[in-house]
Every structure is written in structure tokens, then in C-alpha cells.
Write a structure and sequence with these properties.
Elements (H helix, E strand, L loop, with lengths): L31 H5 L8 E2 L2 H6 L8 H13 L1 H12 L11 E4 L8 E4 L4 E2 L1 H14 L3 E6 L8 E4 H17 L7 E4 L5 H13 L2 E4 L6 H11 L3 E5 L2 E3 L2 E3 L1 H16 L6 E5 L16 E3 H7 L9 E2 L3 E7 L7 E6 H15 L7 E4 L6 H13 L3 E5 L10 H8 L4 E4 L1 H8 L4 H4 L8 E5 L5 H11 L6 E4 L10 E2 L7 E2 L6 E2 L5 E4 L5 E2 L3 E7 L9 E2 L3 H9 L6 E9 L5 E6 L3 E4 L2 E4 H9 L4 E11 L3 E10 L7 H14 L8 E4 L13 H10 L18 H8 L4
Parallel strand pairs: 5-18, 7-8, 7-9, 8-15, 9-12, 12-13, 17-18, 17-19, 19-20, 20-21, 34-35
Antiparallel strand pairs: 1-23, 2-3, 4-14, 5-6, 10-11, 15-16, 16-28, 22-24, 25-26, 25-27, 27-29, 29-30, 31-32, 33-34
Helix pairs in contact: 3-4, 5-6, 5-7, 5-12, 6-7, 6-10, 8-9, 11-12, 14-16
Bound molecules: 5'-O-[(S)-butoxy(hydroxy)phosphoryl]adenosine.
5'-O-[(S)-butoxy(hydroxy)phosphoryl]adenosine binds next to helix 12, strand 21, strand 29, strand 30 and strand 32.
């Protein structure tokens, strides 16, 4: 096998290669290609028996019962979803007659999908009010674990949550927010972020949460796209050793929006105070900036609920694709809420009283569905964590789990891999007796990380629930149910959730059957699916429904094995999955090109030990510009400034020219191979290169590797 020339930093892979020799190299890195060499169904682990003796409550007796319900969800979707919706949610008024109507065939007319149309409900009421009304006001909704480990526990009961939500909601109304307006939220991962989201939901405003790691420019683009006149933010926060000056970025974004629009777009900023004002000065522009605590203390304590149609928008969340600007994915109230709730309930076997901890930030869809909406509908008690898992050291997550007696832990493969690097001692240092179920999301979990998670963290007594889904799907789509009799296969996300009909199609869009490999699509609508792209419905149609007629195209490749398990093989477009976050190549490229010295840029994924994929940028400089270390730094800085730190390229490869077809299309396939294999790349690795307009470019590019 070829040797990987990257430094051996730690051993994560012992059994990844397994029975087949490694295709690429025998180093310790987690390569995408390793994942592709799974010999399917080779290893299987029944859900541990101990799980059923330790955990008393189970939603399903066994896999038979689960399968029967799945069958019903497919055979009689109207009845199934109607029952679920009545059982799980509280409705002000039930839907008219049809549970669902839709069109997935672009040739037949506009793509649409509606669930529970005419039904009236409110997401905030379902998440908070009704639990307080039912006498659970004193139950803790959130334990807030800050960046620093401290003895005193900050928490919100459901009643306290409601009090803050009502006050903030009244304040938003006073500041002119009406049903359908988009309110931007740019905050660290603290309970007040959830409060801000729910306050919007209460009055029918659509929230647009922007992850706190995004730059001023990214925030400004989102403010402009959704015409947000109100921004809820925070002075700043500590993340590990660093201080993030969020308010300054928010100000810069508001300024950019003003320049772009020609008028003051953002008219109010409500600023939550996290930092010590004696040590950290933030400028508050008197006419539009107000402190959260002052706003809440002077606000009316009660705020009426706005009853929404099931199909009214609940939120917009931006996500990257391979082309153009991020898309504002729109989710609606009824279907989304139901789907988030029942996936949370069944995937994690959640019952009220359990303590659940999801490490995701509310800036991403995982936080929306599994820190806010799903768990709250289910009256969960949760831990919300603001810090990083390695601060002050790598025992942090296990200490948190012990401190709050966490039962279900939901995290990401990248995080597991980053903790594996520190060794088992950090895990063993802490008590993990309370943990009953472990789950992951964001990318395929490589079997080695799966086994480590199961063995070292779960002591072989916890199911591992690897959930495949997307911003667009609203909730889990494919997962291994933690049910008696289910056989888990490390590296496979398992089987479809209720109501989900996945199909695997070939290049021509033909549905494949049995054991197969191809593009993962979804054939039937489900309540949690996106309804549109904000302001651009045709983009929704062309992105998801044009590639294969009649199907929702996920953008992922997958294999289905003989037992009907799905094995995700990664994105089939030019989206890069960095630590479970979707990075659009086009965005990174335009940030690079915006730097005056760059003539052309092409960005591709490269396998990365911890992050799963890293960002590898080929850069062609303008005439007269010389490659240098300073320039490299400046380019990385430019990307950070334009988009955000998570998009910083890992590698900048100087490219005298890029490999193109005669029609001028960059051959990314070749760039990916060179990025992956470096100088060891051979012509046979590159496949068909006959369409290259200048074949010598490849050799030249390779010779610049590492320069
Ligand atoms: C993309 C969606 C869903 C919340 C987090 C990311 C990849 C996600 C898995 C998994 C294999 C996964 C896919 C998908 N992905 N979870 N369990 N196994 N791949 O949401 O930013 O919308 O990204 O993440 O490629 O398309 P997102």
C-alpha cells in the first residue's frame, strides 16, 4: 500500500482496515476511503442486553413491535401521522381534512408539501406553557454549564423559562415585531439563546439563528437576505481560553447591512450581558442597543400566544451548498415540531425524568431540533453546554455527565476522535454510571471511533445511535433504533425512521433494489422536511428535486446492504464536511478570490484525522504575485474574516494552473486525488484524464505539493 506522508500523531485506527488491505496507506489517519472499504455487515453488535435491564422505560417492547409501527407509518401514513400529532402535540384547533398533500414531481408542477394544513398550534406553547399548566413548572428544563467549571449550577425550570420568554416576547412586540417578521439571533450556546428562539415562536416571528462563530460579513448576508430588523445578541463570551467579542461583530454586521441596503436595516439590538462589564467594555449605541436584563425587567410579564397555522414558518436556518450563497432553509410549525419531538423521543428512548445532554450548538440544526424543540416538547431535562470539551481538560464531558447524572449523550464523531487522542485515562478518571445511551450525528462514525465510544465511554452497556439527517430534513431520517433485538453495525446509520422511504438511485435516477450503491434520495414526504428556500423557491426545486425526478435528493452517496442497512459514503457534491459542519466550496473560493492577489481558486475536501474532512485550497496567483508564507497567512485570514474560523483552509496549495476540461471546467476529481495522495499520486490514481485540455498541468501541480 501507499504510505501516507502526514505525521503520525496518534493511533486511532487499529481495526479500521480490517480484513481488506488498506487501499491508500497504512497510517493511522481516518480516511474517507477507509470508510468505503467496509465489508458490509462484517461486524454486528446487538443492542447491549444490559441496556434493557438498567433502563426501565422503553417505548417499544421489541423490534417486532417497532417494525409493525414502521410498516403502518408507510402503509397508512395519514392515520399514523394523525395519531402521532394528536398524541404528541397540543393543538388549538385540529387540521382541516388532509394530513398531508404534496408534489415531488417537478414535471407536474411546483414542488410543495403541506402537513396538518389548517391546524392551529404554537411551538412555544407546546414546548413550555403546557408543561407549566400541567404542574411541571418546577422541573428543570435546562442546566446551563458554562465555559468555566464552577460549583454553582445555573438552571432554568420550565416556569422560569416561561417567565423570561413571555417578557422577551412582549418586548419584541413593543419593538414592532409582528407575525412573520424574521428576527436574527447571534448568541453563544446558553439557555438565553433558546429563550430568544421561543420568544419569537410565541409571537409568530420567524427566528434566524446565526452560529456565533460566523463573521460579520456572514451575519450581514443573513440579516439582509431575511430583512431582519431586530438582532438579539450578546456582549461576548469565553470559549476555552479565548474571549469572543460578539457584540463588536454584530455591530460590524449591522453596519455592513446599512451600507448594503442604503438605510438602517437593523433597528434594535438586544444584548445579553455575559462578560464582566468592569473588565470588558462594549459600546452600546444608545438609539438602538439595549441590555437584555433591562429589556426584560421593564417588559410586560405576560404575552399572549399567537396561534399559528401548522404551515406557518417557524424558523429559517442558513446552510451551505456547493454553489452560491448559503440557502435559508425554511421549516414550518406543525410538521417540524412533531417530527423533532418524536425522533428525539424514539431515537434516544427519552422519557421525562431522564437527563439528556446534546453537545451541539443551537446555531446549527442539531441545536434547533435536539436542544430546543424536540426535547422541550417531550418535557426533557437537559444540560446545555457553552464551552469546549477539552477545556479545562479532556475530562470535561465526562465530568459534566457525572455532575448532572446525564442519561443520554448526543455528540459528534469528530469530538469523539479528538478525545480519543488524549487517551482513555481522561475517560476513566470520571464516573459515567448514569449514561445509558450514546448517540452521534454530523458524519459517518468510523468503526474505530464507534468502538471506542461504546467500550471506553459506554462500558459496552449503551446503544450507539448514529443518526443520519440534514438541516433540510428537520430531524433524524436513518438511525439504529435502541430497541431489543436490533443489531447494530458500527459505521452504518441503520434503518429508516417512521414514515421515511429512502431510495438509492443510479446516475440516471433509476431506483435500485436490494443490495446496492448510489445516491440517497427520499421518495415520500415527511413532516419535518424543508418547505422552501427563503425568497427563492426555485432554488429549493432545482437543488433537491431536479437531480432525480420524483425524489428528494439528499446530496449524499450511500450503500444499502443485504439486511437493508444504510451506509453513508459522504457528499456527492462539492460540499465539505468539516467536523460535521457543512462548508460550501464556492463560498471559500470566493473569499479567497476576494483577496487581490488571487486570480483563481479551487477548494476540495481532504481526509483529516479529527475533523473527518479538511479544507484544501488550490490558489493561482495573479501575474506578478509571488507565493510566500505571509501571503498564505493572509489568505487564511481572509477566509476567516469573510466567512468564519470554521472555514479556514487547512492547506493552501500554490497552483501555477488548474486542471481543466476543454470547456474550461475545473476537474475537481483530480484535485481531490492530488490533495489526498500528494506527491505519491500516480497516473492510475487519477482515472480518466483524457478530457484535460492541458495534461501537463497535473505534473506541475503535483510538483508544487508542500511548497
Ligand atoms: C450532512 C448534513 C444533521 C445535523 C448535522 C449536520 C452529513 C450528518 C450523518 C451521519 C453520515 C452524516 C451528511 C449530510 N451527515 N449526519 N450520521 N452519517 N453522514 O447537518 O449541516 O445539514 O449536514 O451531514 O453528508 O448530508 P448539515
Amino acid at each position: 500500500p501507499l504510505q501516507c506522508d502526514r505525521k503520525r500523531r496518534f493511533r486511532v485506527r487499529k481495526s479500521l482496515g480490517r480484513s481488506r488491505p488498506l487501499q491508500l496507506c497504512s497510517c493511522t489517519h481516518v480516511h474517507q476511503a477507509d470508510r468505503d472499504t467496509h465489508s458490509l455487515a462484517e461486524q454486528s453488535y446487538p443492542v447491549p442486553r444490559e441496556y434493557f435491564t438498567r433502563v426501565q422505560n422503553h417505548h417499544f417492547k421489541d423490534m417486532e413491535q417497532y417494525k409493525r409501527l414502521y410498516e403502518r407509518s408507510i402503509q397508512q401514513p395519514e392515520e399514523f401521522w394523525s395519531d402521532m400529532a394528536k398524541q404528541v402535540l397540543s393543538w388549538k384547533q385540529l387540521w382541516e381534512n388532509q394530513v398531508c398533500s404534496y408534489n415531488f414531481d417537478i414535471e407536474k408542477g411546483p414542488i410543495f408539501c403541506e402537513w396538518f394544513k389548517g391546524g392551529k398550534l404554537n411551538a412555544c406553547y407546546n414546548c413550555v406553557d403546557r408543561h407549566v399548566e400541567a404542574g411541571y413548572g418546577d422541573q428543570v428544563a435546562y442546566y446551563a454549564e458554562g465555559n468555566e467549571e464552577s460549583a454553582d449550577i445555573r438552571s432554568y425550570t420550565y416556569r422560569e423559562l416561561l417567565d423570561s420568554i413571555e417578557r422577551l416576547a412582549s418586548a419584541l412586540k413593543v419593538r414592532g415585531v409582528k407575525k412573520g417578521d424574521v428576527v436574527a439571533i447571534y448568541m453563544p450556546n446558553i439557555p438565553e439563546l433558546a429563550i430568544a428562539m421561543l420568544a419569537c415562536a410565541r409571537i409568530g416571528a420567524v427566528h434566524s439563528v446565526v452560529f456565533g462563530g460566523f463573521s460579520a460579513e456572514s451575519l450581514a448576508n443573513r440579516l439582509i437576505d431575511a430583512k431582519s430588523r431586530i438582532l438579539i445578541t450578546c456582549d461576548g463570551y469565553r470559549r476555552g481560553e479565548k474571549i469572543v467579542a460578539l457584540k463588536a461583530v454584530a455591530d460590524a454586521a449591522a453596519e455592513l447591512a446599512r451600507e448594503n441596503m442604503g438605510y438602517e436595516l437593523v433597528q434594535h439590538k438586544i444584548v445579553y450581558q455575559k462578560l464582566d462589564p468592569k473588565q470588558n467594555f462594549v459600546s452600546m449605541e444608545s438609539h438602538m442597543d439595549e441590555w437584555w436584563h433591562e429589556v426584560l425587567s421593564t417588559a410586560k410579564p405576560h404575552c399572549d400566544i399567537e396561534w399559528m397555522d401548522a404551515e406557518d414558518a417557524l424558523f429559517v436556518l442558513y446552510t451551505s451548498g456547493s454553489t452560491g450563497r448559503p440557502k435559508g432553509i425554511v421549516h414550518t410549525t406543525g410538521g417540524y415540531l412533531l417530527y423533532a419531538a418524536i425522533t428525539h423521543r424514539y431515537a434516544f428512548n427519552y422519557h421525562p425524568g431522564d437527563v439528556y445532554f446534546c453537545t451541539a450548538d443551537c446555531g446549527w440544526i442539531t441545536g434547533h431540533s435536539y436542544v430546543v424543540y424536540g426535547p422541550l416538547v417531550n418535557r426533557a431535562t437537559q444540560v446545555i453546554f457553552e464551552g469546549v470539551p477539552t477545556y479545562p481538560d479532556a475530562t470535561r464531558l465526562w465530568k459534566i455527565s457525572a455532575k448532572y447524572n446525564v442519561n443520554q449523550l448526543y455528540t459528534a464523531p469528530t469530538l469523539i476522535r479528538s478525545l480519543m487522542r488524549y487517551g482513555e485515562a481522561y475517560v476513566k478518571n470520571s464516573q459515567r454510571d448514569s449514561l445509558t445511551l450514546l448517540a452521534t450525528v454530523g458524519e459517518p462514525i468510523n468503526p474505530e471511533a464507534w468502538k471506542w465510544f461504546s467500550r471506553e465511554v459506554g462500558e459496552n452497556r449503551c446503544p450507539i445511535v448514529d443518526t443520519w439527517w440534514q438541516t433540510e430534513t428537520g430531524g433524524h431520517m436513518i438511525l439504529p433504533p435502541p430497541v431489543q433485538g436490533f443489531i447494530q453495525k458500527p459505521g452504518s446509520a441503520g434503518v429508516p425512521f417512521f414514515g421515511i422511504v429512502p431510495v438509492v438511485v443510479n446516475e440516471k435516477g433509476e431506483e435500485l433494489s436490494g443490495e446496492c450503491e448510489g445516491y440517497l434520495c427520499i421518495k415520500k414526504p415527511w413532516p419535518g422536511m424543508l418547505r422552501t428556500v427563503l425568497g427563492d423557491h426555485s432554488r429549493m426545486e432545482s437543488t433537491y428535486f431536479k437531480p432525480f425526478r420524483g425524489f428528494y435528493m439528499s446530496g449524499d452517496g450511500c450503500k444499502r446492504d443485504k439486511d437493508g442497512y444504510y451506509w453513508l459514503t459522504g457528499r456527492v457534491d462539492d460540499v465539505i464536511n468539516v467536523s460535521g459542519h457543512r462548508i460550501g466550496t464556492a463560498e471559500v473560493e470566493s473569499a479567497l478570490i476576494a483577496h487581490g492577489s488571487v486570480a483563481e481558486a479551487a477548494v476540495v475536501p481532504v481526509p483529516h484525522d479529527i475533523k473527518g474532512q479538511g479544507i484544501y485550497a488550490y490558489v493561482t496567483l495573479r501575474q506578478g504575485e509571488e507565493p510566500s508564507e505571509e501571503l498564505r497567512k493572509a489568505l487564511k485570514h481572509a477566509v476567516r474574516e469573510h466567512i468564519g474560523a470554521i472555514c479556514t483552509p487547512d492547506v493552501i496549495h500554490w497552483a501555477p494552473a488548474l486542471p481543466k476540461t476543454r470547456s474550461g471546467k475545473i476537474m475537481r476529481r483530480i484535485l481531490r486525488k492530488i490533495a489526498e495522495l500528494g506527491p505519491k499520486v500516480t497516473p492510475s490514481d487519477l482515472g480518466d484524464t483524457s478530457t484535460l485540455s492541458e495534461p501537463q498541468v497535473v505534473e506541475l501541480l503535483v510538483s508544487y505539493h508542500g511548497k
